[in-house]
Amino acid sequence: xxxxxxxxxxxxxxxxxxxxxxxxxxxxxxxxxxxxxxxxxxxxxxxxxxxxxxxxxxxxxxxxxxxxxxxxxxxxxxxxxxxxxxxxxxxxxxxxxxxxxxxxxxxxxxxxxxxxxxxxxxxxxxxxxxxxxxxxxxxxxxxxxxxxxxxxxxxxxxxxxxxxxxxxxxxxxxxxxxxxxxxxxxxxxxxxxxxxxxxxxxxxxxxxxxxxxxxxxxxxxxxxxxxxxxxxxxxxxxxxxxxxxxxxxxxxxxxxxxxxxxxxxxxxxxxxxxxxxxxxxxxxxxxxxxxxxxxxxxxxxxxxxxxxxxxxxxxxxxx
Length: 319
What we know:
The protein is α+β, with helices and mostly antiparallel strands. The chain folds into 2 domains: about 170 residues, no CATH class; about 140 residues, no CATH class.
């Protein structure tokens, strides 16, 4: 346990040294409660400058040399093709910042869907992932304990195209995409009065058959004219889930985002509020990641977004 804590504080010290050697203001910096009698570490963002060839440097010193000097291994999966794609889309920087409320993600200074955690949702994450044989490492428990006492972040900065204006690391106010998304959502809510509500309690029986509430899948399919085959699971997957000790898996959505719960314990939320989803659509459109025909697809997604974000959907899978 002592070695784990020493490793943790060595890592924090390394981040502090690097951040202070090449840093920029961090979104969320100053949000920590510095009046408490507990340890608080609130640092600027560490700025990594990514070259056109994918090389990474901090204050003109290459990260590879720094890691060698500090005897630390760090492999950043960035290549020339990725950098070229981001440059052509005028993506100048991507920021990840930890705050007491969650992990913020920003592209060109604009927030995109991020991770938020309230109450015990973060504390439930290591145990939930362990059930799926996903190990966050020996320091995950300590990080959960100290998350509201640590403020750290990283900014990956990419070369700008010749003639392109520099984009601030954080853009005050909502972007046009975020404002349009919020306006469309409010217009939809005004038109329907109350948010749409859908509750789907799915029960998997011992023989693999499914009931949704008091109705069988066949009865519900006959009523709706649609197929619910996507909910079907074979006996082997069912046995595997039950073997993990999971009796209930919930997925819920509302205006704040998407939350997954396991056996009633909510995990961190994918936060799409305040126009973050609109900003993400704008970024995807910029990068052209969807290839030909993406404009019509993104236009359809934008039109459906107010309905999807406003609906209160609870899908509960009972095993």
